[in-house]
Structures are given as structure tokens and as C-alpha cells.
Amino acid sequence: MTTSEIERLISLLAKLPGLGPRSARRAALHLLKKKESLLSPLVDALTRAADQICTCSRCGNLDVEDPCSICTDPRRKEQVICVVEEIADLWALERSGAFRGRYHVLGGTLSALDGIGPEDLHITGLVERASGTQVEEVILATNATVDGQATAHYIADRLGTCSVTVTRLAHGLPLGGELDYLDDGTLTTALKARRPA
Amino acid sequence: MDWTDSGIVLSARRHGDSSAILTLLTLEHGRHAGLVRGGFSRTKRGILQAGNVMAASWRARLEEHLGNYTIELESAHSPAFLDDPDRLSALTSACAMAEAALPEREPHEKIYLDFLYLLEALPGPHWAAAYICWEIGLLADLGFGLDLATCAATGACDDLVYVSPKSGRAVSKEAGAPYRDKLLPLPQFLRVGEADSPQSQPPPSTEAVLEGLNLTGTFLERHVFAPHHKGLPPARHRLVDRLTGITTISGV
């Protein structure tokens, strides 16, 4: 391996999220030192991932098969679709184990500044899925940000013609949250969403 | 170079892993961008939302540099509208309009103060009228003000029901009758002299709001955006689409 190849490895590693040039150098050196136990398996895993992992044409999830294992799992409720912004959000919900329905990944949010319009998100596919006779509820699990909620409202409008119940995640106090340390916005939304004790 | 000012968040874009390029509409420094280190971290991401008011300190070695912001939340307006699609659309539209229409680093004190007034008025029943008045103020501050006080043809101050799409001046019902198909309707809540302010009138109907949005949109598109080969921001179109698709405005 020539120096330029090491530099190429470092520059590619530096493009990964969370890694700068300094961390990339450390990672590259570590990989090269542990060639047999780490570098070769990593190369193998990366090659397999590049060859086999694809985007699910139904929900937008990443998996080795299309449709993905979540879309084909018969134990999951077909009647409920949870709409998330990104695949990372899907993974977060899956980690919680609290949702046993299907997902739909939008691929982002509406953003006027970045020129992301409805046609750039997977909204048409969602409307088609929601129009199916089996679907009863669509949960809008977009982030509690201005862009996320603007997107949720837009989708709710688009789903107005479908005979489905559209719900969204609650906003309010996080578990373990202390009022004294919460920001004004969270407190405002928590107060607005209060419910009988 | 450094200064401290109050600013309204117009946008925050991710930069790198956790930093953000924040654009504020400030009182004394106009639309001004800067880097917020850790702006997309868990603790700061929630406050960098469009419409929130910040106490911002900007620092850079040279004036032309992007510089760094140190920010502290003064008042969080956006969370109040997250559940209200109409008002949220108005808020995002106002932020997008200010971001797209205002030149960078040019003070527009009146637009800033009008924006603060809009943020205060948004929870109330006259939010749509306040939004349209803000756009009229934006036009005026950019040098394309509308004259809605007197008739362009006769000089009369009464019975003004149209606006000339060419001059931006009001036209009376009688003088405008032969050209009414070419003139823009002037909604009642914008008629000067009908009342002291839109707030003293009943909240406008959806039709009147759409007429107002059409009026300001026509002039903003022609004078502010078309010279730069741009159209109105998508968020502004979505506001109109939303109001067109409903029969009543929430809160009215």
C-alpha cells in the first residue's frame, strides 16, 4: 500500500459522520494494525452491504430484500402505517419495540430554503398505500420541529381524501424530565396537550 | 468584529455533524447568517426553530466573514403553532419570504418590528390580516409600497374596492368599473378609512384573506422576486393552497 492509498483511505473515512481528519487517521491506523481481525471482515461486510442492501420499494426502509422484512412480516399490523422522516427514525421506533405496524419513510421534510417540495418526498406512495382497503390508521411520527410539523400537516391534508384515521405523536414532557430544566417550547406544548389526571 | 442584537430565527441549516448555519432577522443588522457550534446538538436543536426570538452575539475576525453566533433563547413562538396548520403555514411563509426577499446584512428595522408584531398577533383571531399587513410592510420597506389611501384615477378617498396591478394604487368602484376584470380586488380589511386598523374589524373571511394574499403576492412576485428570476417561495404557495382548500380559517 502506497502513502497515497493510505491518504485515500483516510480521506474516505473522514467523510463519515462524526469523523474528522484526525479521527479518520486514528481509525485508518487502527484498521491497518488489525488487518486480519478487523480490516478484512470490515471490507467483507462493506462489500456485502453494497451488493445486497437495497431500498424497499414499498416503505423506503433499507433491507436485503424488497419488500423489506418489516413489510412482509405477517405478525405486524397491516392496518397501521407509521410515517417517519428518515430511516434513523424508523430504527429508533424499532428499538423501542412499542410499534408493531408498518412504516413509511418520507426521506426528509418539506423545506423551502433547500428547495425540497412534496414531489421530492415519498408522499405519493404513502397516499397510494393509505388508499388501500386494509389501512385504517396513519401515524405521523415526524419530528417536533417547524419543518417536521409543517410536513405532517401537509400529509394530513393529502390524506384527507383517504378513509383513514390520521394521528400524530404527542408532544410534551420527556420521561425523567424536570420542569426546571425544560425549554419554554416543550413546556408550552406540554401545557397545551394536558389531559385529565 | 462583534455585536450583540436581538434576532428572529429565519432558518437553520445543518453544517457538518452538529453545527448549524443560522440566519436571523436582527433589529440592527438585518438578515444576518452565522455559524452556531453545536447548533444541531440535542440541547440547541430545539431552540433553533423558525420564528423563535434570540439574543445573539456575533463575532468574526473580519466583517465579511461568516462569523460565529452565540445565542440564547428570548422567546419561543414556534411551539405555540405546531398544532395549528394555518398559523404554522403563515409563520413558515413569513420566514421564507424574509429569507428570500431581504438582502443580507442590510438593516430593515421596520420589517423586524413588524415581524415581532406578527408573531404577537399570530395566536389571535386576526392572524391572517396581520400576515397580509406584514407583507404590505415588506413591500413598502423594499421600495414598492402600495398606495391604498386614494383613488389613482379620481383622487377620491371613499369607496376604494380595486387596486391597479400596474401602479399599485387603489381605484374607486366607480372609476374602476370599466376595468374591473383587469384590476385586483382590494379586501375590505385593507381599505384605509374603513376603520383604524384591521384589528378593530371582525376577522376577515377566507375569501378576503385570499384576495389580500393575491394582492401582495402579485406585487411581491413582480417587483421583488421576478428581477432575480425567482418566484414566490414554496412556503408562500403552500399557505395559499392551505387557505384555498378550507372553508373557514381556524380561530375565526
What would you say this structure looks like, in words?
The complex is a heterodimer of chains A (197) and B (252). Helices cover 44% and strands 13% of the residues of chain A. In chain A, helix 7 (146-158) links the parallel strand 5 (137-140) and strand 6 (165-168). Chain A is globular and about 65 Å long. Chain A has a four-stranded parallel beta sheet with strand order 4-3-5-6. In chain A, strands 1-2 form a two-stranded antiparallel sheet. Chain A has 197 residues and is an alpha/beta fold. The mean pLDDT of chain A is 91. Chain A has helices spanning 3-13, 21-33, 35-52, 69-72, 87-96, 123-130, 146-158, 184-192, and strands at 54-55, 62-63, 77-84, 101-105, 137-140, 165-168. Chain A has a domain at 75-168: Dna Topoisomerase Vi A Subunit, Chain: A, domain 2, CATH 3.40.1360.10. Chain B has helices at residues 42-45, 85-101, 109-121, 127-141, 173-176, 206-225, 234-244, and strands at residues 2-15, 19-26, 30-36, 53-59, 68-75, 147-151, 160-163, 169-172, 184-185. By secondary structure, chain B is α+β, with helices and mostly antiparallel strands. Helix content of chain B is 33%, strand content 23%. Chain B starts with a strand and ends in an 8-residue tail after the last helix. In chain B, strands 3-2-1-4-5 form a five-stranded antiparallel beta sheet. The A-B interface holds A 17-18, 110, 112-115, 117, 144-147, 149-150, 153-154, 156-157, 171, 183-186, 188-189, 192 and B 11, 13, 17, 45-47, 49-52, 73, 75-76, 78-80, 82-83, 85, 88-89, 91-92, 96, 99-100, 233-235, 238, 242, 245.
Summary of the model, kept short:
Chain A has 197 residues and is an alpha/beta fold. Chain A has a domain at 75-168: Dna Topoisomerase Vi A Subunit, Chain: A, domain 2.
